[in-house]
Design a protein that fits this description.
Layout (H helix, E strand, L loop, with lengths): L2 H4 L1 E3 L15 E5 L5 H12 L7 E5 L5 H12 L2 E8 L2 E6 L25
């Protein structure tokens, strides 16, 4: 994975955003040429650090991102806000503080609550 694919920064500050990022902040993630699986892993890890209401601008050249991102947002409870730039293609997601849990390595799979075997 390239270092540019892992970079993320806030547009309002030169410091990397932390869990105390204000909800009005826009956080930028450069997904580069990552494919769907690695892109969602990157996005999942980053949004877990952000406050409710923070908007993420995810740039990626993955041709299936406009299909996968709205579905992933619907599955997890984050809000898909749509396309915000064309070159590179950039998509906006608003973070929710209570997302549906997904698998660390496979964020397109929900984590189902454990069932009581005696029930």
């Amino acid at each position: 994975m390239s270092s540019s694919a892992m970079s993320s920064s806030s547009t309002h500050s030169s410091a990397a955003p932390s869990s105390s990022t204000p909800s009005s902040a826009v956080v930028t993630i450069d997904g580069g040429d990552l494919g769907c699986a690695r892109l969602l892993i990157l996005l999942r890890r980053r949004v877990a650090e952000l406050d409710d209401g923070t908007v993420v601008h995810l740039s990626t050249r993955d041709p299936v991102a406009p299909i996968d991102l709205p579905v992933w947002c619907d599955m997890t409870g984050h809000d898909y806000l749509g396309v915000v730039a064309a070159d590179p293609p950039t998509y906006a997601v608003r973070v929710t503080s209570t997302p549906t849990p997904t698998d660390d390595r496979r964020p397109w799979h929900r984590i189902e609550p454990e069932r009581d075997p005696g029930a």
